[in-house]
Amino acid sequence: MTTPEQPPPPKEDEKDGLEALDALEKEASEFNKVRFPKPTTPTVTDPKSQDAEIDRILKAFKLDAYAVLNLQPGIPDSQIKIQYRKLSLLIHPDKTSNPLAPSAFDRLKKAQTELQDPKQRTHLDECISDARMLLIRERKLTTDSPEVKEPDSEFLAAWRKKTVEVLVDAEARRRKQMKAQLQEEGREQRKVDEEVEVRKRRREHEVKWEETRESRIGSWRDFQKGAAAGKEGDGGKKKKKLKVLG
């Protein structure tokens, strides 16, 4: 009985990509366990509120910049700046002794940068919109349904959870496309390198050929002189005529 062939082990770059996606999905599953209260902005800069906000930022799903900044989608740019300023002052590493403050501050800054970038914000808004439509279809609702027009906390939590799933899928596709692009660029680069190497060897051959030009010409002249001298030596002797028998 033959044993089935085992699949080859993943390459190092594939392994790193899979581990990154696994970590992202694990973070998504942990994020989905969190309840989603209405966004609020801490105003008291006491250690407890600072620690609570740092904890909230680090638990927010990092692909959702709105969640990191504790904002609702569709908010004006001016409000994003105001919210970022409030939170960054609250959790700034210089204003708290919490060892996780630098990580939370970096994540907050990254989220604000993403929302200020039109392309990245459009992508996030599209994922959130897709998640809403998927949820509506799963629940066999319409955009005119009361649950959709005036969503309660349960619907909003389900929407946020669905958004996480859509963002994870989108990130997986992006990484796959990037990997394919890098592989294609690698093939093109190898092709260019090979062509450069061929041209280099051709030039080296031409240079060596020119360097040995005088030597080859001299050898040919010596050969010609030797051949001429041989003819002159044979020219002084008369060839005997062969007698014909019969």
Describe this protein with a few key phrases.
246 residues, mainly alpha, 9 helices
Topology record:
Blueprint lengths: L11 H20 L15 H13 L5 H5 L7 H15 L9 H16 L1 H21 L7 H4 L3 H59 L1 H23 L11
Helix pairs in contact: 1-8, 2-5, 4-5, 6-8
Can you walk me through this structure?
The chain has 246 residues and is mostly helical. It is built from nine helices and no strands. It has helices at 12-31, 47-59, 65-69, 77-91, 101-116, 118-138, 146-149, 153-211, 213-235. The longest helix has 59 residues, at 153-211. The radius of gyration is 39 Å and the shape is elongated. It starts with 11 loop residues before the first helix and ends in an 11-residue tail after the last helix. Mean pLDDT is 81; it is low at 33-38.
Please summarize the sheet with the most strands. none
Strand proportion, as a percent range, falls in: under 5%
Low-confidence stretches: 33-38
Mean pLDDT rating: 81
Number of strands: 0
Helix percent reads over 70%
Look at the helices and sheets and give the structural class.
Answer: mainly alpha
Tell me the overall shape: elongated
Distance between the termini: 91 Å
Write down the Rg.
39 Å
Provide the succession of SSEs: HHHHHHHHH
Number of helices: 9
